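Weekly modeling sync, notes
Attendees: AB, CL, MP (scribe)

Item 1: holo prediction request
CL wants a bound-state model with iron/sulfur cluster before deciding which constructs to order. AB pointed out that an apo prediction alone won't tell us much about the pocket. Agreed to run with the ligand included and paste results into these notes for async review.

Input as submitted:
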Amino acid sequence: MSKKEEKWKLSRRAFLLASGAAVTAGAASNFLIAGCQPEEVERDPDDPVDEQPEIDKTLVSVEPEITDTKFNFCGICSANCAMIVDIADDKAWRIRGNPDDQVAEGHLCVKGYSALKDLYDPDRLKHPMKRTNPEKGPGVDPEWVKIDWDEAFELAANAYNEAIEEHGPQSLAFISRGHDWMNRLQRAIGTPNHIQHHSTCFTTYTAVWRAAMGTGNRPFMLDVGRAKYILSFGWDQPSKAKNMSAREYVKAVENGAKVVYVDPRLTITGALGGEWIPIKPGTDLAFMLAMIRIIVNEELYDKDYVDNYTSGLEQLAAAVQDYTPEWAAEITEVDADVIERVAREFATTKPALIPNHKRDAGGPNYANSWRVAFCINILNALVGSIDREGGQIIGRTPSMVSFDDAFPPPDYPEMPDARIDGFEKHPIIGPTRRGDFSTITEAILDEEPYPLKAAFIRKHNVLAFPNAPRFVEALQKLDFVAVCDVWPSEMVQMADVVFPEPYYLESSGFGNRVYHAFYPQIALREPVIDPLYDTRGYGGIITGLAQAMGYGEYFEGVSSGELNEQRLEALGTSMEELKQNNGIWSDERPFEGRTEWDTPSNKIELYSTVLEENGYDPLPHWQPKKEMPTDEYPYYMIISRPPMHKMSQTQNNELMMQAYGEENSVMLNSATAADLGVEDGDEVIVESRANQVTLKAKVMEGIRPDTVCIEHGFGHWSRELTIAFNKGANEGDLIPTMPIDEMLAAGDPGAGSQMQDFCVNVYKA
Ligand SMILES: Nc1nc2c(c(=O)[nH]1)N[C@H]1C(S)=C(S)[C@@H](COP(=O)(O)OP(=O)(O)OC[C@H]3O[C@@H](n4cnc5c(=O)[nH]c(N)nc54)[C@H](O)[C@@H]3O)O[C@H]1N2
Ligand SMILES: Nc1nc2c(c(=O)[nH]1)N[C@H]1C(S)=C(S)[C@@H](COP(=O)(O)OP(=O)(O)OC[C@H]3O[C@@H](n4cnc5c(=O)[nH]c(N)nc54)[C@H](O)[C@@H]3O)O[C@H]1N2
Ligand code: SF4
Ligand SMILES: [Mo]
């Protein structure tokens, strides 16, 4: 082993140990990350990675003089853990978790600790660019030319205005997470087309929560740490190294909580828990219906909670009588006596919780997932665990001055109803205007209900869309695409004009604590260093574009500094005070469980009148998943994500890539591998009715023999991502898209993208 390799091995091991410990046991948060030194190295994208300049990867043994300390919060996942960043030699040198943040509690996860590697990534976008090669797609060099901001705005404004004049405002789509500035420009233009990722992520939960509890959109907070019985149906957040989930879960296990982990695949969450039930994919609904029947029939539910805070128990009881444990056993392949035991344990151990986040069994994975989300809500309510200690909590967030109150807008034009993705056709989820990642592709290609001509895209990647190659075809059909990004992602490769944004560590503002918010709290974000490149924040990009398009009046007097000031003043604080107070403002008060709900009955509705009024089943009923194994596609396909990557946006982080092991693989049970004549590490083809991908096989025991699993985030084809390029495959290429008619036929009030409701074949490459 060369000296260089030896050094790397040491530093990598030290890093893994330190970050693993920080995730699971709350180890000292100020360990050093070798390889994260702020060395700025220009990488030539044409050089093979081996020949790139060497980055010093030795462990740092001597602490340099810390000249400044800045506050920020992590922008990698939505937990937004508060950070303290130590500065040495004008460079961000070390990141620590902020101990005063109730989410971080002084610690971060592997991804947060490695963020300096992203900040100083030489592949980052450095200035606005335009493409000069009209051809677009994988393998095509965009032939970028550097331009200034005025030219970038002008090019985009001309293209968008031309589309609007010739084809109407609806011919322009904003594909972006919601943002005050963006929402205003979209409304000023009068296009109904704003598309975000929720249909792939947690829309089924949102729909059920809106209907049965009236609590809006964010079913994200859990008091796992105090739960005594944790019944997970694919809730696997501790395995994702999500900071507070991992910490609270370990706390619960150490406090003697019993964990039953139901998942076709054994994960770290399951392994730490004690009991693993390898359920057949897409059948959790049957398990839950049988549980409800037992709990109701044996009167094991929390009588006080159910009487006072829920409605519809009688109708619920009548609806589940056919769902015996024996019936559920046939469907789920879980023994009837196991289902009975789990139901009784769950109802009689307090506090008990079915934790859920986004893409577990109730997430938009299958045609029946919304019913699973509904059953989870019902079961948590039956045992009195909604907004109670050890249960599912409604996060306490501070109320904020709205953007429109701070800067009242001129009148907006009328907006057409019909959206490109048909999202207005869903009565419960439609009003959230979040849009649909799986129907947009077919709509663009078919020009139904009308032609889409241009798109403005921000912080969404091609690899996140079902059947990504088909989405590329849809993008190729558009006349003009502008993309805001931090990296030269696959979406950037499809752009005509690129607007580079700063990395979050170069940005300012503040953020609500959401994922672990027992009381209202905000965390400060200040630039930890001066911006490295010629970038602009999203608000500034939208303002520049609006002015160039002729919508400048909507942004007169609008400034993020002023908005922040107004919001902080309303809370009785200021940026200055936040700085003085370790970057945190809190309104700490004792936790009091909610007693009223924003539904027609003011209760949690076990019989949902809102679902009924909108044409959906008001009670949970059995419905199978949509696609079953066939001779052609004999295996269930499931998707997950690893602890050290966030979707497709961390693969260019050298540390994370090293920690993961470079490429993803397809997980196969050893019996399945033997049947297929495949050995660990062999290349295999995984094929669905949409596409095929080639990957290495990872042979294991901890997955059902009828199921295969692939982790998401890989298969980058942008050559400008020099580390991420060409590692593994995108399992999303396999996911079929859905035309709007198929989506409506599914009858899902959340309009979920059914990310796993298909089957695959696997064979040796
Ligand atoms: N490290 C890391 N953390 C992340 C993310 C990331 O990319 N990386 N992404 C964040 C985001 S946006 C999201 S949406 C969440 C998603 O995080 P999770 O909601 O935890 O989703 P997955 O990672 O997809 O894990 C879902 C689990 O469900 C199991 N599963 C699949 N099918 C079934 C089934 O039919 N029944 C049951 N019971 N289980 C099933 C899978 O095997 C898998 O273990 O994670 C967030 N946190
Ligand atoms: N195949 C498949 N598809 C999926 C999923 C899956 O499991 N498998 N999961 C789904 C889920 S749960 C989700 S939440 C979605 C997520 O969908 P996306 O948010 O589209 O997914 P990411 O892969 O995280 O891509 C984020 C993009 O934003 C860029 N970016 C990062 N930070 C910034 C920033 O500060 N500003 C700007 N302008 N850009 C930034 C990154 O370079 C990257 O291109 O994906 C969904 N799609
Ligand atoms: S859990 Fe990790 S990635 Fe998510 S916000 Fe916290 S430190 Fe960042
Ligand atoms: Mo997600």
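Recorded for review: The chain has a mean pLDDT of 92.
Action items: CL to compare against the apo run; MP to circulate these notes.
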